[in-house]
Amino acid sequence: MDFFLYYGCQGVTDSQDMPAENPTDPAQDGGNGGSQFQRDELQSLESSIPTRSIDADDVLKILKEFLRDFPKLRDEGPPREIQDVRDNSKDGEYWEALTRIIPERTLKLWDALGAALLEYHKVLTRRSELFSEATRLQRQNS
């Protein structure tokens, strides 16, 4: 958010106009969490930033500038060491148990209901056909 406010107050017009370094950019501190100097500078910057809304046209430019310093944008998941430590010996049991999560009795009930609904649909379809035929015959008789 500080990055947005910093560049929003400068009235960003083009990414070439933006300075190469920004004290509020977390990507430029080398990932070490920032130094005390940077935190102090950030606090002084926050107090000097007037409250101003950011123009909608500048949002994309600010985001591109913010992401420019990130070498990779995707999360690659946990570190390789953590992935190797995971015990996957019970995975088969887990997936096998998931196949039986709905009781057999409930599955049979659902199958019976499905079959009954199909029969009911056939009856309603036939009734609709008969109703259309009766209407046609009434018009013919009149």
Q: Could you list the spans in which at least 5 consecutive residues all have pLDDT below 50?
A: 13-34
- Report the span from N to C terminus: 78 Å
Helicity level: 55-70%
Spell out the helices and strands N to C: HHHHHH
Principal-axes geometry comes out as flat
DSSP helix count? 6
| Sheet with most strands | none
Describe this structure in words.
Pfam families: NYD-SP28_assoc. Residues 93-142 form the Dynein regulatory complex protein 1 C-terminal domain. Residues 14-48 are annotated as: Disordered. By secondary structure, the protein is an all-alpha fold. The protein has a domain at 103-141. The chain is built from six helices and no strands. It has helices at 2-10, 36-48, 56-68, 80-85, 91-99, 104-141. Helix 1 packs across helix 3 (56-68). The N and C termini lie far apart (78 Å).
Reconstruct the topology from this structure.
Elements: H1 2-10, H2 36-48, H3 56-68, H4 80-85, H5 91-99, H6 104-141
Helix pairs in contact: 1-3
List its traits.
142 residues, mainly alpha, flat, DRC1_C, DRC1/DRC2, DRC1 protein
What is the structure about, briefly put?
This protein has helices at residues 2-10, 36-48, 56-68, 80-85, 91-99, 104-141. By secondary structure, it is mainly α.
